[in-house]
Amino acid sequence: MGYPSDVLSTRAIVKPGLYAIIPKDGLVNNVIPYIENCRVSIVASPKMGAGFVQYVVEAAPGGRTTAPFGGEPAIESFLYCIEGVLAVTVGQEQFVLTAGGFIYAPAGAGIAFSSEAPSKLLLYKQRYIPLAGKAAYTCAGNVNEIAYRNYDDMANVYIKDLLPAGLGFDMNMHILAFEPGGCHPFVETHVQEHGAYILSGEGMYLMENTWLPIKKDDFMWFGPYVPQGAYGVGRDLFAYIYSKDCNRDVVL
User: Fold this and answer.
1) Which of 79, 110, 171, 188 is the least crowded, having the fewest Cβ atoms under 10 Å away?
2) Per-residue pLDDT at 198 exceeds 90
3) Which residues contact 217 (CB under 8 A, 6 or more apart)?
């Protein structure tokens, strides 16, 4: 990497328990057991206040898992392919994911992957909250085969749902996209937390009481009850994939 070309600076902001913005140029490599030939950055974890762990992974040729990711009992997991081609296994099922491909593995199943060429992906895991009489199951697809629908009756903001809405699932993944000038219909304040990776474009994001610039390859995390909302700016579609906890009551 060598010496910096300018005075050290960053757009990164981390307010534990509230929110975080982590730009691409601040990511560092972490050695993670059972993941080989990959550059792995942990961008969200309980250490900052998140109820999940999320990773940005750059796989070199031959990058792979040697044991399923998220295969521990009661842990559910998710993988999203940003770039490249991945061979993926969940249990006895095998899949090939290209850019935009995703897969969810129910608690304890885990996700194994390998890459023959350079690839970039997101990994996500959290503890599953069971519900009597309901169960989650393996789901795979590609976002390019899912049509956008208008978000809250607005013609310049769109959403895609990646996972089923059934009560067996205690989480979902969505892609939210804004045309330049598009925005949330109101400032949201809710119990759910989000982990969000910017897939394209630029935006201005309100977190708590501060408007912050966001762009492609940034990661964002918002904790529960943090006021948040966004505008799409620039010339391209401002789009991000984000997690959401759902379908469960608050545990006392």
Assistant:
1) 188
2) yes
3) 23, 24, 197, 198
